[in-house]
Predict the structure.
Amino acid sequence: MSEGVRAANIVQNPLWLKGVRARLRKQHVLSWGTIVLTVTAFICVLTYLTTLERGRASAETAAKAIVIPIIFIQGAILMLAGTGSVASQLSIEREKGLLDYQRMTPMTPTSKILGYLFGLPARQYFLFLLTVPFIVFAAIVGGINLLSMAHFYAVFFTSVWLYHMTAMVAGMASSKPRQAAMFSQGMVVLLYLILPQLSRFGMTFFEFLTVRPTFYSMVQAELAEANPGLRRMAEEQFTGLTRSGAVPFFHWELHSTVFTLMVQVFLLAAMTIVVHRKWRDEFSHPFSKFQGLGVYAGLLFFLLGGLWPIVSDEHLSSRLMEQFGRGPGSMAPELFFFMLLLVLLLVCGAGMVLIVSLITPNRYTQSRALRLMKKRGSMRVPLDADGASSLPVTIGMIVLTIIAFFALLRHEDASDRFLAGLPGLAHQAAPVAYIAACMLFVQGIRERSSGRVYAVGIFLVWMLPFFVTMVLFAAWNAWLAGAYAGLANPLIGLWLLISNLLHHADPIVTADVVVRGDLAPEALAPHLGQVAMVAVGLYTVLAIVVQVRRVQWRRELRLKELGPDAGRAPQA
Amino acid sequence: MDDGPGRLWYRPGPGEARVIQTTDMRVDYEDVTAVADLNLSIDAGEVYGLIGPNGAGKTSTIRVLATLQLPTYGEVRVGGVDALEDPRGVHRILGYMPDLPPVYEDLRCWEFLDLFASAYFVERRERRARVEECLEIVNLQGKRHAMAGTLSRGMTQRLVLAKTILPDPKVLLLDEPASGLDPIARIDLRNALRRFAGEGKTVLVSSHILTELQEMCTSIGIMERGRLLTSGSLSSIVEQMGKEHRRLHIEVMDTEANRGRLLETLDGVGAVTEEKGRFEVVFAGDESAAVDLLRGLVQAGIPVKSFSERKIGVEDILLKVGAREVS
């Protein structure tokens, strides 16, 4: 049997079989099965009969009404309990050393990952199966379109696998089972409750990490009659971005299932890379340098793809502005554009910080790499090695961010949706120059310092100015002083720099009335240009100082590890 | 002189490849160098004992050989396969048993072994027989259906040993395999290892229990602070040390005070210690020189009651090479 076929044959996968044997003992099956079966039956009977008798609805409508509660039960079983189970069990195996046994079997890493992915939550899959007869009943009696159901469950399962893969990463990284389970379950809650809010700013990408879009499109298509409240909720949540179930992405309109699968497969691939690398060597970085750059490029592609149609499609942008402002015309176009840019740069910054944190070598990793090179008689650490500097990749991410930012500005300039004209190049470039310098500063600190020093250092540089600014703003309305005090904080810095960009742009003039939103306090407006200059200058100086120190320190390290001859060829 | 237990067992032919070979292997943990430029060669059919105090680098060496971690640098070949380039190639021929080995507590003993039988691609129709065979080897047939989590420490150790030998590996890496075993189980383990070696398998064992290693190993390596202080066949090391420093036991009839000083004046005699008329003499000379010494003592009128040579053991070798922290 070829290795590919062997990997795909999950029923014969030893790790799956181990999961089934260990997790589906008679006592577990009976106790948990009874609980799930009883609760699901109770909820379904209650919903069905209440809709039928009290609501005087038809049997078809009553059957449709039970779909939503069953989906919630299924989600709780597989997405919450299953995710926690994967994370905690894998963490226990890692802590005890059982993972080492598995690392050493000649199965392919893909087989091992698949075995764990389906074996660890075997009990949850069994409990899910117990709920299937209820959904089949609802689909047959309610006459639900099977294609809609298939779309929903395709996305449901890719989401489940994505969360379980996240849990595997958490389980392989953490030696505390409870912590790993709570972290991964917290991620699911975050995905469902917090990140979807970013879709209001065009970050549709985050919304599609969940089953919500597909769920609501199924609600709209199939279940609206039985759940009018949910239909209203669906319209409120998604009409801004999806028209007839389509997702605008760059110039295309993709089916929500297709887009969800695209997004989830991208993240699944990223998670698979991490798990693969950790299988090979538990001390290796989650991503190689190029993989980190690739993941960031993918993130940027999805972010930009979601923002693009908002700028070019009047219908879409108007609906979003209405939705955001809770009423027609209540938000100025430039204020909305300001929010799009701010959220874009903040998400890009967060993405870059995350990737930099994951791929930057600490002192010991660098020393190891240098010793290896010395042994091989080479003076250069390969660019993609864990021990190589993350500076080239950081620069690569910065370049991609600059390209994306300017592409969006040019696109806006061509469409004139939010601004009549862009300001001069210096004002346009200031926000990305700020974020570029900020990232070079972060990279320099990360490469030189231990994890704790890095975390505390970044916290102090970013949060202390934020707190001071808040006190100055709240207590004395000291806008200018507060702005200068908070420039080191990226949130405040970007807020001021994008305000400056839009302040110097030509606003849209409608019927001789200038529509200008409140971007920054009026008292700050005359000083925005100066504040922007100081902000960029501040981080440029910080970045130069940190990078110069980093290069000096790296040269010393090379001298120590490679000897005096190596000092002549310092590496970036 | 006895050639050690290895003479009884399988010996590789002169042309056979080294089964375990590391070249300039180094392992670092942050600022600590766990293994420093280790050059280790172990032939097929050897039972190689890796000895050293805690922190000597034994476990790190074994983990690198098992492909569980990457060295800072160096070459590692197991069974002729480059462990860094083709770890899966190594997995096919390697069995590894860690110190304090864990088991899946929620699996029965036979399920635990069956998991690894299928993970190592043992044919389905052969799996059950192989599992039974391994349970028999470690004497756990009676615990076939017991949950692995309910086994005692010694039984757990035996179950993991069964798992380790199940895929019939060419190379066995055993990290402190005898810890937690009762005396009978240790004898079983020793016999099992001898049998593996007799079948041509190569076994690398790390242990603190020196007498045990002496009984089961054909070769030893002594590590301290990441360095290999000495390595070779037990018999050759013993022979070499025996040539340099024999330990003679001389018992005399009377208890005259200056006997010790007199002994020290004789040719080849080094340090002399005495306990109730029984002298231990460090003697630098071969067997004929020892005969000359005995003759000299008798001619000097010393009433020699007994004269014997104490066999040199692993403990003596350890003391000689300086790894003093080993128990």
About this structure: The CA atoms of residues 14 and 180 of chain B lie 38 Å apart.
